[in-house]
Amino acid sequence: MKSSLLPTVILALAALASGAAMAAAPVKTAGGMLVNTSGMTLYTFDNDVAGSGKSACNGPCAGLWPPVMAEADAKPEGDMSIVTRDDGTKQWAYKGKPVYLYKSDMKVGDMTGDNFKNVWHVIKP
């Protein structure tokens, strides 16, 4: 009877560990800029107000500039915090400013959105 409980305990611990890993900020530094875990360049938007807890990029804007979403149980860490989007979902923020990808960046290292319309900028920690 005890041996059948062991696999259940192991699976439960694995589920907890994977959940904790997903809640961490999905960013890292590469090439002097902030990127997601896949290596794609991350951006901030000048129309976002640092520390406001909101994103100014919603609707069609978010289609072109996808927000870097946070899991519901994600916790702030270091310079990374969390803002609530207009639809109630959570988004990662760097130094209080929401973080985005750019839809036209196709491969690791692309940063074609840098200075787009002079309001989108690569994050350089």
List the secondary-structure elements in sequence, H or E. HEEEHEEEEE
Largest sheet: 4 strands, antiparallel
Number of strands: 8
Which overall shape is indicated by the principal axes computed on the Cα atoms?
Answer: globular
Strand content: 15-25%
Average of pLDDT: 86
Helix content: 10-25%
Spans of at least 5 consecutive residues with low confidence: 5-22
**Number of H- or I-type helical stretches:** 2
Broad structural category: alpha+beta
Separation, N- and C-terminal Cα atoms? 54 Å
Outline:
With 125 residues, the chain is an alpha+beta fold. It has two helices and eight strands; from the N terminus they run αβββαβββββ.
Description of the molecule:
This protein is of the alpha+beta class. The chain is built from two helices and eight strands, in the order αβββαβββββ. Strands 4, 5, 6 and 7 form a four-stranded antiparallel β-sheet that branches. Strands 1-2 form a two-stranded antiparallel ribbon. Strands 3-8 form a two-stranded antiparallel sheet. It is globular. The N and C termini lie far apart (about 55 Å).
Highlighted features:
125 residues, alpha+beta, two-stranded antiparallel sheet, 2 helices
Helices and strands in order, then pairings?
Blueprint: H1 2-23, E1 27-30, E2 33-36, E3 43-45, H2 60-64, E4 69-70, E5 80-84, E6 90-94, E7 97-98, E8 120-122
Antiparallel strand pairs: 1-2, 3-8, 4-6, 5-6, 6-7
